[in-house]
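If you are new to this repository, start here. Below is one unmodified record pulled from the training split, so you can see the exact layout before writing a loader.
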Amino acid sequence: MPQIEHQQFIKAPVEICFDLARNVDIHTQTTSKTKERAVGGVTEGLLEQGDTVTWEATHLGIKQRLTAKVTLMEPPHKFIDVMVKGAFQSFIHTHQFLEADGGTLMIDQFQYKSPFGIIGVAADKLFLERYMRKFIVSRAEELKKIAEKLNQH
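And here is the target side for that same chain:
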């Protein structure tokens, strides 16, 4: 089961970073390259514990849907969402926010299991893990831009 971890320092308070990361509208902005949009469950505003959201996006040239549920919410330091329906066999995405050096260290931990047994394992090695890492890093960099711009005001 591959695990991807990415750390991003953001010059903004932990509360701002936490709320931006769980904001459905901001998620759509930070994933515009994949045309991601909320089409079911909570489709705008802030996600809370117990909420589900269904995302529609184009990944690897294929339009697909994925439903995730927020299973843990510890404001403003941590939340976890898990896939309940979608292309993966499973995934757990842990979002952590630590106060650090006048800003926030945002840590994404994404653990997933591909479908299709040995074929899925091969896909991980060939391209999927690299693709998912790039997706997570890109979203973190976009969140950083938004948070730091908000923090200037």
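Two things worth knowing about this chain: The first helix runs from residue 14 to 21. Residues 3-151 form a domain with the Alpha-D-Glucose-1,6-Bisphosphate; Chain A, domain 4 fold (CATH 3.30.530.20).
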